[in-house]
Request: fold
Amino acid sequence: MTDDRYLKRTIVKEEVQSSYLNETRNLRVYLPPGYQEWLSYPVVYCQDGEDFFNFGRVATHANQIILDDDIEPFIIVGVEVDKRIRTSEYSPSGERHENYVQFFAHELIPYIEGKYPVRNDADSRILAGDSLGGSVSLHIALRFPSLFKKVISLSGAFYPDSQSIIALQPDLSWLEIWMLVGLQETSFETDHGTFDFVAYNRATRDLFIEKHAKIQYDERDGYHLWGFWQQHIPEALKYFLQ
Reply:
């Protein structure tokens, strides 16, 4: 049975106006147990924010590792996305991708850092995402290495266009990435075709090694589903936060 302490979560709904996206973007902000405005906290920015909270149980997992595993309290910002335009924003070849990346760096980060006591150094910011969310998290870090150095990728959708961008990087020794892929993700069906995520992640891992990134890579039994990813979220968070 789940400990009731893990379920006592403080989650604040926020809205941030974006001139890059020409819209208001919804956010979910998790505040840790014992939250105090006069303290300062590391922060995890999650793509697919609604899914991370609803299906990934990220707030419950955060409570558990903070209360039981002596992890320093941290804040989570879930950035919600309209699934109808998700690929356009998350894919590096998408029409809205450049605007989304600019929104993240120039509007979202200042908004959060102006309202919450999060630390404003790259070592205290973590980007997290599943599938294309893992890919866009990496691309944001590549564009703004002064802002982000740490990425959590759950079955990242590292298609050839993403791999080409990584291959062009002269040196990634500044980057630290935690990667997970399920061994049963060899023929995942999408609206754009059927893809082998295991092969994509292995190839991307090799690129990271070639470019001297610090990488924690793992393959486990699992499918391209939240039921698989949410089991490993505590491990990913503890990797960067302990």
Notes: Residues 4-241 form a domain with the Rossmann fold fold (CATH 3.40.50.1820). The CA atoms of residues 18 and 24 lie 6 Å apart. The two ends are 25 Å apart (CA to CA). The mean pLDDT is 96.
